[in-house]
Each structure stands twice: as C-alpha cells, then as structure tokens.
C-alpha cells in the first residue's frame, strides 16, 4: 500500500509532537485507543481565553495514525473550543487522502480531540471560560 | 551498497543468476513439451525435466520418481491434504496439524472440515513455537489418517522436531505430511531419516523462479497414494496433470543443486550475520524481545518485538529496507499475527514485531545499515509513543483502563 505524500510528510516531520503537564489547569488531555488494538493517541490542548493556543500529540500506531494526530494538532491551534468541536474525521480522511482501511485512524483522532476538549471543560467546570 | 535493501527472504528470494542461465535455453531454443514422446523436441525437454527431478530429489534425499511437480507450495499443501483425505477416506478422516502452520495448510484443513470431509485437531505450540511430539502422539485416534506439521515456521523460523514426529507417525501407521517450504535448501532435509511421507516445498524460496514447486510423495515403506486434484493428461504419474513448465523446472533443479552445494558455508555466513544483527539491535534497544526459538531456528530468520512502537510505523520509517511485520495494520484482517499469538506473545507485542529475513545476497554492509536504521527509527518512534512515556513515568500499562475501539 502506498502512502499519500501528506501522510509521509506528517510521519517524517511530525508537527507538535510532545507533551504538556496534564495537571496544568489550562491543559486538556485526551487519550484514546488501546495497545492491543495497535493504536493509542494522546492529544493535548492548551487553552487561553477560550482559544486553543497550543496543541501536542504522542501516538503509538501506524503511519496514518501518527499523521492523523499530527494534522489534528495543526488544525486545533488557533481555534476556539466551539470551532474545535466541529472537526470531523471525514475532514482528516480528505486532507490526508486516507484509504478505507485507515479510516479508523481518523476516527481515533476525532475521538482524541473530543476527549481533550471534554477533559479541559471538566477542569474548568463551574468557572467562567477564559479564566485560569 | 544499493538501496532499497531486501531483507524479506521468507516471502520470496531473488533468483540466482546461475539459475537464470540454466533456464534460458528452455524458452526459445529447447521449447518442447516434455510429454511429447515421438520427437527430439520432446526428448530434450523430458531429459531436462528428469535431470532437474534428480537435482531436487538429491537435496531432500529422495528418489527422483518421488517428486511431483506443482505450481508451488500452496498447491502442494492442497494436493497433500485433499489428495490423502480423498484417497483414504474409508480408513479415516481425522487430521492432526498445528496452530502455527501456514495458511495453505490451515485453510485447506478448515475447508475440508467445513465440507464435512475431515475432523481436524489443531495442536498448540510452546512459547518458542515448537510442536510437542507427545501432543501429536496423544492426539492420534483410530480415525487419524494424516499428520501435517511444518518443518520451519515462516514468521519466527522455529524448527519443529520432525524426526520424532515422523517416528510416531510411522509407529502408529499414520501418514506424515511436512510443509517444508521455509526449510528446504536452508537446513538439511532427509525424508528417510525424518520419516516424512509427503513434503511440500517451492522453487522461489530457494533462489529459483516463481510458479513451480513440488510435492514429495513416498513410493516405498509405505507406498503413498493421493487422489489427483487436477485431472487431465495424466502427467506426474497421474497425480498432477498439466504440461510441465520446463524452464521453471530446470531453474528449480539448478536452484536446489546450488543450495545443496553451498549449504554448509552459506549457513555459517547467514548465522554470523543474523546473530550480529540480533546482538547489536538488542544491546542498543531496551525492551526488545526475540520471538521464536533462541537457537533452534532458520539461519536467516530474526523476529523481534520492539515494545511501545507499532510495526507498520517501523516499516514506514525504514522505507529503504524491505521487511515484514506481524502488526495487524500490515495484514488484510485487523488481527495481528496468529503465529505470535499462538506463542503466547501479547497482542501489543505482536503489533510491535518485525521479521528480518536474511538471504544469499545480503552483505555485511547491508546488515550494518539495517542495524543503525532500526535503532534510529525505534528510538524516534518511542519518543513519539505515549505508551513509552507512560512506562518511563512508571505507569503499569496493564493496569490502565483503555478505551478499546
């Protein structure tokens, strides 16, 4: 199976690979997947004034899974929480030109985004958004 | 050194130029049908085929008359299992095989089972991938007609105790088929000493052309009979009809001859390179685990799991080296290697496995390059792995509640 140029590019030059301290109040962490399934994604967002100012990922998985999460961090940066909620796995499929057998990688990336957003919102629950 | 490097010699092997040279006259010049008995074109072809039959038989210590040409090992496996079951169905319909056989055996057995033509016992293997002869003995019933156990495994290279299984089969009067696809030409094979009644193998794994293989069918003690699965002109003593592919057979013969002549030196060379690859990689990378038997395995085989990184991404990072992985992502199904699972390797480590298959044309430079590249890519991917990060933080990954998908 040949990989699309974009998948290869994200794999060779991953964007925003790394970690934030997950206990920080302005950080939301999403961890999805399972080792026995062959892919685990950790996606983190750093939020200020309702806007995602930074994002990082770490992924155990195939090249398409790595590329999907790398792309997700690129897209998340600069988006508001509300805008980030709207990122769909199909957008990732289209951007990376993923074949049908790799669609689950994009689903995982969407799940990771949702999980990171939910984690952040849980942390800030009861507080007005934007405060730290 | 030329890139890409081919280190996938279990999947196939490049043809030896000496084999090609032997084949060339049989395409245009000596193109006769080996079954044409009445003219010189046929005689030349027949002579070439019989010469090849001798070369092949010699490699496995058989008689030339016991070699039946097929299209490859998959056909040979099919012919052995289906042919024996059909021929001896009045005597019994029980087959004993193992869970780590190649799919050409497993799926043939399952197909016979599904059609109600056979009952099959799939024996487990130990943590090295070896079948226990005692298990074979215990599984034999008065309905057992065939035992089918592979010589060496295609993923982990583990070599089975064939001689002991052969003895058991003989003492119980059960036929013994051995899928020797990965072993023939690589390690000594002696169908007499090993007590093998039927044996499948193929040309393209021994530096010969693709499209031809053989089934060894014992002629004496006992005389084994099989029902043909392809009917027609009655070629190959009625066991496999179809015009013989003379150039391919000539190549197969030459390839076997070369394997026989060079086996001792080639085995020593491969083991030295393979062991160096293994030692250097495993010394540099913590939590890398050898799959298969530490010593009793094919000279060119090395199968390692690298914890916390996924196999397909490893292959992607080493694009200029042709390798194979037991990861689900590299297979059509979404399950990782059934062979590694049968050894008791955890699913996550099965996803992380890489198979190195060394062969005749690999060089020390290529091994050095591969070692360097593996260490570099595994290190890079571990930096990227959330599992590695968690393990470093002291999290027990087994205690984590994963959201399986």
Architecture overview:
The complex is a heterodimer of chains A (132) and B (405). Chain A is of the alpha+beta class. Helices cover 43% and strands 21% of the residues of chain A. Chain A has helices at residues 5-12, 63-76, 81-85, 89-96, 103-124; strands at 27-34, 39-48, 51-60. In chain A, strand 1 and strand 2 (39-48) form a beta hairpin. The radius of gyration of chain A is 14 Å and the shape is globular. The model of chain A has no long low-confidence stretch (mean pLDDT 93). Chain B is α/β, with parallel strands linked by helices. Chain B has two domains: 5-9 and 263-392, Aspartate Aminotransferase, domain 1 (Alpha-Beta Complex), CATH 3.90.1150.10; 17-258, Type I PLP-dependent aspartate aminotransferase-like (Major domain) (Aspartate Aminotransferase, domain 2, 3-Layer(aba) Sandwich). Chain B is built from twelve helices and 13 strands. A seven-stranded mixed sheet of chain B has the order 2-8-7-6-5-3-4, with helices on both faces. Chain B has a four-stranded antiparallel sheet with strand order 9-10-13-12, covered by helices on one side. In chain B, strands 1-11 form a two-stranded parallel sheet. Classes of the chains: A alpha+beta (132), B alpha/beta (405).
